[in-house]
Design a protein that fits this description.
Blueprint lengths: L1 H5 L17 E4 L2 E7 L1 H13 L2 H25 L5
Antiparallel strand pairs: 1-2
Length: 82
């Protein structure tokens, strides 16, 4: 249970703060199914369309957010959080 919670962030996905899970969830670009790393997927799709420096920085930010929750989950599994 603690590991699953570690995959969430209080701020939620960008533009959809009610979706807290960073590893799976709905994509802005796929109405029918869940995506792995939905924040990263959304940021990449947006960056491909906009192709600006800011949009690609958003991709980096989303990757950082996912890396952080994965590290938190790994810490939970190794006994770092209780």
């Amino acid at each position: 249970m603690m590991t699953e919670r570690a995959f969430t962030e209080r701020e939620g996905l960008s533009g959809r703060p009610w979706y807290k899970h960073m590893i799976y969830g709905p994509s802005l670009y796929n109405d029918y199914g869940a995506e792995a790393y939905p924040g990263v997927d959304d940021a990449i799709q947006t960056a491909k369309k906009a192709n600006t420096s800011e949009s690609w920085q958003s991709v980096q930010h989303e990757i950082h957010r996912v890396a952080r929750v994965i590290s938190q989950s790994a810490s939970v599994l190794s006994g770092g959080f209780s």
